[in-house]
UniProtKB/TrEMBL annotation:
GO aspect biological process, one term: DNA-mediated transformation
Extent of Polar residues compositional bias: 303-316
Signal peptide (from-to): none
InterPro entries: DprA (IPR003488), DprA_WH (IPR041614), DrpA_SLOG (IPR057666), RuvA_2-like (IPR010994), WH-like_DNA-bd_sf (IPR036388)
Region (Disordered): 303-324
Family named by the database record: Belongs to the DprA/Smf family.
Originating species: hydrothermal vent metagenome
Domain (Smf/DprA SLOG): residue spans on this chain: 88-296
Name of protein: Rossmann fold nucleotide-binding protein Smf possibly involved in DNA uptake
Domain DprA winged helix: residue ranges: 318-375
Length: 382
């Protein structure tokens, strides 16, 4: 490649050109990078001859598609882009996340719904089980709020369970949250998170490397996980079983030389075994959000760019409910201090009758102090 070609301005390649190349059959992330490195800019790839493309050492499928008279349909992507707060970033855009560029297969295009400025903020990935315990969900939410207030944008995958709780907690803090999804941004999956996704759009961003129209498929989620870890300074696993998909995110983080943190749990909780496995493999055991901030050396991070929330928007501390309860309710809660328990177990540990316990638990559930899961009650104010 001559010097003149290397020094051509980046903006000569339109977003339509980038979309055309990216959606060409046979052109995945790796092939896109190979072609861009060889030709210097996208337009040169699209106008290259069969002989010139062959010299770039890419597949016959990509060469035949690029030299064909038919071009991919990019109309859906361009139509989506016309909506306010919808963006498509190329690798050459200043707003494209710097950390993401370090991936060998960095997405050539990044679809963003929301505020692109959040992509430049320091981030921490939070992942875990789709079916967490009530305590695990509460822990994720509390950690996310604390870290967000410290200036860390929380990045997760918008899935059920720990992902959702992490996003919700981060939205209560200052630094917002980023959701990385495994499908086109014309849909939201799971559908139950439509409202959550809208809140994230208003206080962060929902992003994807997938073109418009791509539906969620099993094989796309692990690919999504590598982006979650790559965007972040570290990855925190809250609850995970041995074969949890969140362990894939942790593995990517290790391969990318970023920190992995894990919150330990009860030896009786199968959702804690993945975290314990990570700790045995070298992940850092954390008990408080402060442990993470100190490890990342960002405990004094200034947050002047984030809007301050009014006192009215600050949620009431659930521990205040606990302190306002009568002595019998407080005594019962002490029996739920560390692990979930059934009514029968509480009868033995509290000396209340089953009827008394059932009545008190009903009140505590209505006060959002305890949660029942599979017949066992958890104190979520700890």
């Amino acid at each position: 490649m001559d010097a003149e070609t290397k020094n051509r301005p980046v903006n000569q390649d339109s977003i339509a050109s980038w979309l055309t190349l990216r959606l060409t059959p046979g052109v995945g992330n790796t092939t896109f990078h190979t072609l861009l490195n060889h030709f210097g800019h996208v337009e040169a790839v699209l106008t290259a001859s069969h002989k010139q493309l062959s010299a770039a050492n890419v597949s016959a499928e990509a060469i035949n598609a690029l030299t064909s008279q038919t071009t991919p349909d990019i109309s859906a992507d361009l139509a989506w882009l016309e909506t306010e707060d919808h963006h498509i970033l190329t690798l050459n855009d200043a707003a494209y996340p710097t950390r993401l560029k370090q991936l060998n297969d960095a997405p050539p295009l990044l679809y963003v719904r929301g505020d692109i400025d959040y992509l430049q903020q320091p981030q921490l990935a939070m992942v875990g089980s789709r079916n967490p315990t009530a305590a695990g969900r509460n822990t994720a939410k509390n950690f996310a709020t604390h870290l967000s207030d410290a200036g860390i944008t929380i990045t997760s995958g918008l899935a059920d369970g720990i992902d959702g709780a992490s996003h919700e907690g981060a939205l209560l803090g200052l630094a917002g949250t980023i959701a990385v999804v495994a499908h086109g941004l014309d849909i939201i999956y799971p559908a139950k998170h439509q409202q959550l996704a809208q809140k994230i759009t208003e206080n962060g961003a929902v992003i994807s490397e997938m073109p418009i129209g791509i539906q969620p498929r099993r094989g796309l989620f692990p690919r999504r996980n590598r982006l979650i870890s790559a965007l972040s300074l570290g990855t925190l696993v809250v609850e995970a079983a041995y074969k949890s998909g969140s362990l894939i995110t942790a593995r990517y983080a290790m391969e990318q030389n970023s920190e992995v943190f894990a919150i330990p749990g009860s030896i009786h909780n199968p959702m804690a075994r993945g975290c314990h496995q990570l700790i045995r493999q070298g992940a850092k055991l954390v008990e408080t959000a402060k442990d993470i901030l100190e490890e990342l050396n960002i405990s004094q991070l200034a947050t002047p760019s984030y809007p301050q929330k009014s006192e009215q928007s600050t949620p009431e501390n659930p521990k205040d409910h606990q302190q306002a309860l009568d002595p019998d309710h407080q005594k019962l809660l002490k029996c739920l201090a560390y692990e979930p328990a059934s009514i029968d177990e509480l009868v033995l540990s509290s000396q209340f009758s089953a009827a008394e316990i059932a009545s008190m638990l009903l009140i505590l559930e209505l006060e959002d102090v305890v949660v029942c899961q599979n017949g066992r009650y958890t104190n979520v104010t700890i």
